[in-house]
């Protein structure tokens, strides 16, 4: 019989990040690890642990420019194991610097973002896709201290993406993102006697907070001025 989870605490700060470093491919590379532990459900487009399900950690790892490994999920899983992460998790990667992420919060919603936009454009660009191009990636991780339905988790991904595009446009970048952007939204697992929210659009209570947190985190993470990382 599962042990009931405690009610979510909207005043605490769940996104406590561990900063990791390693030497790889002749470079000193960084990574960010978030280990919230049990009781969290996540939805993600990440190469490792993508989809929807209970996850215990999120790793956002920097890799070298010119990354050529064909097993990124295995690579990320190995990095997580080396850091002591246990159980199922989410792994994202980017060639952008991750040591100093953009961070923002709003009413209990929190987000961090790392951003490289050297390869950017509009999603509905003409022509056929040419496959993923790693350098220049916006990775977003957000956490809500409340439970969401499956539909609301999907809605949260839409909301976070809309907030990302708003931050890009307001920062003077004529694009909707990069070809390899990734997102992970975490919410508390449903618990006995607790409310499970059915909406996470930008005008819902928690969707609005999520949007403002992601918007603020991406604005901080974006490279300043005309020089793009």
Structure notes:
With 229 residues, this protein is an alpha/beta fold. 21% of the residues lie in helices and 30% in strands. The chain has 3 helices and 11 strands; from the N terminus they run βββββαββββαββα. The strands form 2 sheets. Strands 3, 4, 7, 8, 9, 10 and 11 form a 7-stranded mixed beta sheet that branches. The N and C termini lie far apart (50 Å). Residues 1-12 and 225-229 have low confidence and may be disordered.
Question: Would you summarize the structure shown here?
Answer:
The chain contains three helices and eleven strands, in the order E-E-E-E-E-H-E-E-E-E-H-E-E-H. It has 229 residues and is of the alpha/beta class.
Q: What Rg do the Cα atoms give?
A: 17 Å
Q: How many β strands by DSSP? A: 11
Order of helices and strands: EEEEEHEEEEHEEH
Shape: globular
Task: State the separation between the terminal residues, measured CA to CA.
Answer: 50 Å
For the largest beta-sheet, the strand count, sense and barrel status come to: 7 strands, mixed
**Helix percentage:** 10-25%
Which class best fits the helix and strand makeup? alpha/beta
Helical stretch tally: 3
The proportion of residues in beta strands is 25-35%
Low-confidence stretches: 1-12, 225-229
- pLDDT average, as an integer? 90
């Amino acid at each position: 019989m599962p042990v009931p989870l405690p009610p979510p605490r909207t005043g605490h700060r769940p996104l406590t990040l561990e900063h990791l470093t390693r030497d790889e491919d002749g470079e000193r590379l960084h990574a960010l690890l978030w280990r919230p532990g049990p009781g969290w459900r996540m939805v993600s487009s990440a190469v490792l642990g993508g989809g929807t399900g209970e996850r215990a950690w999120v790793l956002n790892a920097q890799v070298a420019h010119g990354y050529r490994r064909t097993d990124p999920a295995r690579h990320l899983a190995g990095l997580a194991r080396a850091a002591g992460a246990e159980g199922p998790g989410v792994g994202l990667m980017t060639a952008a610097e991750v040591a100093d992420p953009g961070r923002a919060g709003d009413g209990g919603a929190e987000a961090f973002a790392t951003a490289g936009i050297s390869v950017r454009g509009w999603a509905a660009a003409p022509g056929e896709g040419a496959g993923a191009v790693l350098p220049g990636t916006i990775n977003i991780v957000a956490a809500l201290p409340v439970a969401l339905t499956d539909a609301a988790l999907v809605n949260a991904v839409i909301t976070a993406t809309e907030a990302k595009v708003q931050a890009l446009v307001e920062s003077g970048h004529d694009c909707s993102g990069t070809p390899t952007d990734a997102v992970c939204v975490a919410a508390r697992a449903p618990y006995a006697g607790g409310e499970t929210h059915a909406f996470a659009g930008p005008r819902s209570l928690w969707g609005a907070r999520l949007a403002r947190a992601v918007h603020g985190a991406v604005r901080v993470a974006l490279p300043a001025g005309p020089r793009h990382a």
